[in-house]
């Protein structure tokens, strides 16, 4: 073929080859006028068609138009390919390497959690009593007034109610449901179950959380823990109670700690006593923790009042027993010489880590 378009295929192939070499959108923008625009060889060929007769000009125009369309299509493909590559490049630059994040934010030494001091003390106390032949039982933290007070010989308006500043729960009749103020109501549950199942005697300890409207101070918290002890058997005397307390103290605190039982009053035990040890903060010389007495009360105890046994259907002429209730937080406080009990609830890692 002769005429102005005789090299058209070679021109188009040359342009397509050039498009293939373009490596960026910026380069494409810069070179596009020379490939398919006013400065391209195709525009020059267009101008050269002016001398042809009308039929030949129309045919040549159509061929040129098709050639231009091929080059423009190649430019469009090239633009899309370069845009996709640019998107991939940006995504790759933004990619978060989680491996890097993990190794850069996790400290060299991982710190594992551990049971708190009170939970640990509870487990240790349970171990001591289990070794002495006691079983471990539990009771509810939300109690009826009957279990928390009446079944323990503390009827409504009894002055002894003032010994426990009570949180009442807004359920049922006013002032009939309480957050238990001590673990002693668990005694009643256990005795009722033993009577129902015919499973007397009882030798059990019952640890758990208690609540009182006490103002927190060096020896008190509003939510604290007690471990209740209950023995119901034949021929039990105060000497058995004293022996259990002595054995417990030696096992948990060691032999250097001085102890004493002081006469006291609880409506559900008779006789009753308070159990004290020398203050482990000042070793008996007097300090803020023990209110300068040199002694710390760990709990109350006594022989079961026959009226309490009778109320649950146990014959006091056949069975006798004793009960005790120790503060678990108090035991932990004395054993680990913690001057202020509030440290147990403050979640200060520097304090907690000492007991891991
Ligand atoms: C009682 O709660 C009786 N239920 C104990 C008892 C059981 C007597 C069985 C007879 C027979 P008391 O209120 O004294 O007693 O409390 C016993 C112990 O619980 C205290 O000596 C103390 O160690 C601990 N305790 C009492 N209140 C608090 C408190 N607010 N914070 C921390 N510990 C407390």
Task: Give the class-level CATH name of the largest domain.
Answer: Alpha Beta
Helix % is 40-55%
What's the SSE pattern?
A: HHHHHHEEHEHEEHEEEHEHH
Q: Round the Cα radius of gyration to an integer and report it.
A: 45 Å
> Residue ranges: pLDDT <50 for 5 or more in a row?
none
The CATH fourth-level homologous superfamily of the largest domain: Bira Bifunctional Protein, Domain 2
Bound molecules: adenosine-5'-[phenylalaninyl-phosphate]
* Beta strands, count: 9
The major beta sheet can be summarized as:
7 strands, mixed
Number of domains: 2
Biggest sheet strand order reads 1-4-5-9-8-7-6
Shape: rod-shaped
**Which structural class do the helices and strands define?**
alpha+beta
At the fold tier of CATH, the topology name of the largest domain is: BirA Bifunctional Protein, domain 2
* CATH architecture label name of the largest domain: 2-Layer Sandwich
State mean pLDDT (0 to 100 scale): 93
Strand % is 15-25%
**Distance linking N and C termini:** 96 Å
Number of helices: 12
Q: Brief description of this entry?
A:
The chain has 356 residues and is an alpha+beta fold.
Structure description:
With 356 residues, the protein is an alpha+beta fold. The chain has two domains: 8-103; 118-355, Bira Bifunctional Protein, Domain 2 (BirA Bifunctional Protein, domain 2), CATH 3.30.930.10. The chain has twelve helices and nine strands. The protein has helices at 8-21, 25-36, 41-48, 54-94, 98-105, 117-131, 145-148, 185-197, 238-253, 306-311, 328-335, 349-352; strands at residues 135-136, 142-144, 177-179, 202-211, 223-233, 259-266, 269-278, 295-304, 320-327. The protein has a seven-stranded mixed β-sheet, sandwiched between helices. The protein has a two-stranded antiparallel ribbon with strand order 2-3. Helix 1 (8-21) runs parallel beside helix 4, helix 2 packs antiparallel against helix 4 and helix 6 (117-131) packs across helix 11. The longest helix has 41 residues, at 54-94. It is rod-shaped. The model has no long low-confidence stretch (mean pLDDT 93).
């Amino acid at each position: 073929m002769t005429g102005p378009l005789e090299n058209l295929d070679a021109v188009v192939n040359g342009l397509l080859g050039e498009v293939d070499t373009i490596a960026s959108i910026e380069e494409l923008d810069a070179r596009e006028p020379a490939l398919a625009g006013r400065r391209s060889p195709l525009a020059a060929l267009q101008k050269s068609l002016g001398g042809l007769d009308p039929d030949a000009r129309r045919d040549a125009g159509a061929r040129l138009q098709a050639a231009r369309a091929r080059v423009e299509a190649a430019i469009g493909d090239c633009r899309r390919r370069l845009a996709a590559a640019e998107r991939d490049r940006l995504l790759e630059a933004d990619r978060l390497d989680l491996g890097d994040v993990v190794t850069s934010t996790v400290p060299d030494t991982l710190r594992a959690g551990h049971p708190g001091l009170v939970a640990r003390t509870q487990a240790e106390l349970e171990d001591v009593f289990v070794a002495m032949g006691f079983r471990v039982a539990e009771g509810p933290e939300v109690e009826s007034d009957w279990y928390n007070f009446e079944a323990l010989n503390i009827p409504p308006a009894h002055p002894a109610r003032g010994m426990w500043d009570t949180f009442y729960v807004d359920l049922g009749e006013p002032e009939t449901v309480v957050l238990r103020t001590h673990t002693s109501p668990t005694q009643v549950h256990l005795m009722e179950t033993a009577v129902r199942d015919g499973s007397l005697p009882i030798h059990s300890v019952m640890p758990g959380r208690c609540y009182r409207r006490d103002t927190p101070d060096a020896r008190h918290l509003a939510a604290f823990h007690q471990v209740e002890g209950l023995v119901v058997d034949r021929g039990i005397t105060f000497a058995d109670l004293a022996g259990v307390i002595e054995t417990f103290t030696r096992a948990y605190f060691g032999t250097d700690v001085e102890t004493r039982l002081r006469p006291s009053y609880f409506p559900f035990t008779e006789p009753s006593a308070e159990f004290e040890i020398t203050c482990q903060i000042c070793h008996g010389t007097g300090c803020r923790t023990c209110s300068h007495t040199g002694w710390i009360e760990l709990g109350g105890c006594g022989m079961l009042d026959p009226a309490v046994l009778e109320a649950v259907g146990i014959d006091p002429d056949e069975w006798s027993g004793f009960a005790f209730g120790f503060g678990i937080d108090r035991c932990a406080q004395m054993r680990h010489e913690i001057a202020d009990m509030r440290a147990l609830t403050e979640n200060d890692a520097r304090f907690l880590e000492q007991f891991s």
